[in-house]
Recover the amino acids of this structure.
């Protein structure tokens, strides 16, 4: 079994690529979705978040994403506090996901593989690349946020230029390069590692 990380900056199209890989029959674990599930349903985590970030962290029984985004992306220390609590739980869930799979390839979609230093947990990492302007437009359209909010989120991640030398595999998601061919070639090449 090979564990493959899928990473890229916010708005690069990781989830879109992951859905294609999933449609090809491979299991894909989404770290972001798992983190949200933990934040919404894990009693210890809910208490931790309220104790550290206040009762406004939840609204009508669900995580208040807008409030917490402002807390985290305006304060690197607060982001570090939440990451140190959530990420070990997410990693444990990925381990459980792997333990019940019989696939030769298992994928883990995570925006912050290098930022959290977990790249060594994977046999390979593929970096999804997309022009910054396109990423900004995608995020603003998807999340209905300002350019300033998008920039703050991007500033909390390593740039593509920093990640490129750390990854052997790359997929260009620029609305021009053919994705299916790139994904097929990438998966074929994984067989040789």
């Amino acid at each position: 079994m090979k564990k493959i990380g899928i990473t890229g900056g916010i708005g690069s199209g990781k989830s879109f690529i992951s859905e294609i890989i999933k449609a090809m029959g491979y299991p894909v674990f989404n770290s972001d979705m798992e983190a949200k599930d933990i934040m919404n349903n894990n009693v210890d985590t809910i208490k931790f978040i309220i104790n550290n970030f206040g009762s406004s962290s939840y609204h009508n029984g669900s995580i208040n994403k807008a409030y917490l985004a402002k807390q985290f992306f305006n304060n690197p220390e607060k982001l570090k506090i939440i990451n140190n609590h959530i990420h070990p739980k997410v990693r444990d869930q990925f381990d459980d996901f792997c333990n019940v799979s019989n696939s030769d390839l298992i994928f883990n979609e995570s925006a912050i593989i290098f930022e959290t230093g977990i790249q060594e947990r994977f046999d390979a990492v593929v970096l999804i690349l997309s022009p910054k302007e396109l990423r900004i437009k995608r995020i603003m359209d998807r999340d209905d946020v300002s350019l300033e909010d998008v920039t703050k989120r991007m500033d909390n991640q390593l740039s593509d230029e920093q990640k490129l030398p750390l990854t052997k595999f790359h997929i260009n998601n620029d609305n021009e390069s053919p994705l299916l061919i790139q994904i097929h070639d990438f998966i074929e090449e994984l067989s040789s590692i």
